[in-house]
Write a structure and sequence with these properties.
Chain lengths: 242, 243
C-alpha cells in the first residue's frame, strides 16, 4: 500500500489557485521533499494532507484513508511539525511531551515509555525540566519534532523544520531526520535545497500550485544536465529545462 | 481523557502567569479592602460589605474573560493550535478544554472574596455558600466571553478589548460603584439591558437571603450566558475551520 496517494488535489481561495490538480504517490518509509519558491503551494498541500484545510477538488489517501471521508482516522496516522515552533511555552519539555501523549490517549505506562524513548532519541535529557519558552530556537525546534514523533505517526509532516536555525542546530536536526528514514514516511518542505538533496529519497518541485517535476535529486540533475541541484532547480522553476 | 489533558495544560499556562494571579486575586482584594476603608470613614450604603462583596465577586470575574481570551488568542497566534488541530482532539474537546479549567479559578476567586468579606464583617451564613453556587452562571458568561473574544481578536486586541473595555463596562454598568437609580435615564436603561448589573443584583439578593429577588436577574444572566456560549462556540469553530 502507498503511504500517500494524491489524486487531482486542488485548493482554490476565491480567484487564487493555491494547489492545482496535484497527483502523486509516496511510498511507505520514503523521505519525500516538497520544494518550490514562495507561493508554490507546499504548505497548502501539507495543510490539506493533514486535514487542516479541505480540498476544493480531488482527494488524497493516507495509508488508504481518505482525507475527505476518514478525517478522524487520518489524524491517528499522522503528525505535523508546523513551520513555526509549535510548543506550549509555559510548560516544561517533559510536560509538552506529556501533553502530546495525552491528546493521543496513551495510558500511563505507554506515556512514560514513549517520553523516555523520545527524550533519548532527541537528547532532550538535560532540558527535560526547562520551560519551553526558556529554550533556544534550536532546542525549541527539537522539542517540536519530538512532540510530532511521540505519537508514533506512520506519516510525519515536517514544514520547514530547520528554518532560522544555526549550522550546528541544523546539522543536529538532519541527523535526527536521517535516523528516522525508513521507519516513518516523512514529507518535508524546505527552502534549503542542500537539505532536500542531503535527506530526500525523492523531491517534488512545485510552482504556482502545479507540480513541475517529481523524481530523485540525481535524476533531476541528469534531466537538466546540471551538476548542482540548485542550478537544476532554478532551470526547472524558470521553465527552461529540457 | 484527551480533553482533560488539554484542560490541564491550559490550567498550568494560566496559573503559571504571575500577572494572572496578581490581577485575578490581588486586584479584587485591593478593591474590597480600599472601599471598606472608605466606608469606615465616610459611610456609604453601597459600600457596606453586604453590598460591596457580591459586587466585587462579580467584577473580579471580568479578569477570567481576560485570562481565557489571552490564552486562546496566544495559542492561535502560535502554531500550537494548528498542531493540536491535526491530532484526534475534537472541536468539543477544545471548547471544554478552554472553558472548564477557568471555572475552578473563578470559583476560588469568589470564595476568597467572600472569605475576606467575612473578615471585614460580613455575617457568616449558608447564603454565602449559595452565593458561590449562584455565581456559576455568571462565571460561564464571563468565560464564554473569553472564548468569544479569544476566537476573533489578536492577543494585543484582547488586552484592549477585554483588559480595558470589558472591565470598564463591567464596572460602570453594574451598579457596584454608584447607584444606577441616581444616574437614571438612558444610562440606567442600557445598564439594565446588559447582564452585569443583573449579575450583581442576583448575588446581592442571594447574600441577603432574599431569594424572591433572585428573579428576574437569574434569567438575564442565564440568557446572556447561553447567548455568549453559543456565539463563542460558533466563532471558535469558525476560526478552527479558517486555520
Amino acid at each position: 500500500m502507498k503511504a500517500i496517494k494524491i489524486e487531482n488535489l486542488t485548493k482554490r481561495y476565491r480567484d487564487v489557485v493555491a494547489v492545482d490538480n496535484l497527483s502523486l504517490c509516496i511510498e511507505e518509509g520514503e523521505l519525500f521533499s516538497l520544494l518550490g519558491v514562495n507561493g508554490a503551494g507546499k504548505t497548502t498541500t501539507i495543510k490539506m494532507l493533514s486535514c487542516l484545510t479541505e480540498p476544493t477538488e480531488g482527494d488524497a489517501y493516507l495509508l488508504g484513508k481518505s482525507i475527505r471521508k476518514n478525517v478522524s482516522e487520518v489524524k491517528k496516522l499522522i503528525s505535523v511539525s508546523p513551520q513555526e515552533t509549535a510548543v506550549a511555552p509555559g510548560l516544561s519539555v517533559f510536560e509538552n511531551l506529556e501533553l502530546m501523549c495525552g491528546v493521543y490517549g496513551f495510558v500511563k505506562d505507554k506515556r512514560e515509555a514513549k517520553i523516555k524513548e523520545i527524550t533519548e532519541l532527541l537528547n532532550l535529557e538535560k532540558v527535560l525540566n526547562k520551560k519551553a519558552k526558556k529554550l533556544s530556537g534550536g532546542w525549541q525546534r527539537r522539542l517540536s519534532i519530538a512532540m510530532a514523533l511521540i505519537s508514533e505517526p506512520k506519516i510525519l509532516f515536517l514544514d520547514e523544520p530547520t528554518l532560522g536555525l544555526d549550522v550546528i542546530a541544523r546539522s543536529d536536526l538532519w541527523e535526527i531526520i536521517n535516523s528516522l528514514k525508513g521507519r516513518v514516511t516523512i514529507i518535508l518542505t524546505t527552502h534549503y535545497l542542500e537539505e532536500a538533496e542531503a535527506l530526500s529519497d525523492r523531491v517534488a518541485i512545485m510552482k504556482s500550485g502545479r507540480l513541475l517535476v517529481c523524481d530523485s535529486v540525481e535524476n533531476i540533475k541528469k534531466m537538466t544536465n546540471e551538476s548542482r541541484f540548485e542550478q537544476a532547480f532554478v532551470r526547472i522553476i524558470k521553465g527552461d529545462a529540457k | 481523557m484527551r480533553m482533560l489533558t488539554f484542560a490541564s495544560r491550559n490550567a498550568k499556562e494560566i496559573i503559571r502567569d504571575p500577572l494572572n494571579l496578581c490581577f485575578g486575586l490581588g486586584f479584587p482584594l485591593v478593591l474590597i479592602f480600599m472601599l471598606s476603608a472608605i466606608q469606615a470613614n465616610i459611610p456609604v450604603s453601597l459600600f457596606e460589605i453586604e453590598s460591596l462583596a457580591p459586587g466585587i465577586a462579580v467584577f473580579g470575574l471580568s479578569f477570567m474573560t481576560l485570562f481565557s481570551a489571552t490564552l486562546i488568542s496566544k495559542d492561535r497566534a502560535s502554531s500550537l493550535l494548528q498542531r493540536l488541530y491535526t491530532t484526534p482532539l475534537s472541536p468539543l474537546d477544545f471548547i471544554l478544554g478552554y472553558t472548564l479549567p477557568i471555572i475552578p479559578f473563578a470559583l476560588a476567586q469568589s470564595v476568597i472574596c467572600y472569605i475576606v468579606a467575612v473578615i471585614l464583617g460580613l455575617n457568616i451564613s449558608v447564603n454565602i455558600l449559595f452565593a458561590v453556587i449562584f455565581i456559576i452562571p455568571v462565571c460561564v458568561l464571563y468565560i464564554a466571553l473569553g472564548l468569544l473574544f479569544g476566537s476573533i481578536l489578536t492577543d494585543k486586541q484582547v488586552g484592549g478589548i477585554c483588559g480595558a473595555l470589558l472591565t470598564n463596562l463591567s464596572a460602570w454598568l453594574s451598579g457596584i460603584w454608584f447607584d444606577l437609580q441616581l444616574v437614571g435615564g438612558a444610562f440606567k436603561k442600557i445598564a439594565y439591558a446588559l447582564p452585569f448589573v443583573h449579575a450583581v443584583e442576583l448575588e446581592r439578593a442571594v447574600v441577603a437571603g432574599d431569594f424572591s429577588n433572585v428573579f428576574p436577574h437569574l434569567w438575564w444572566v442565564l440568557g446572556y450566558a447561553a447567548i455568549a456560549l453559543v456565539a463563542a462556540i460558533i466563532l471558535f469553530l469558525r476560526q478552527m475551520k479558517k486555520q
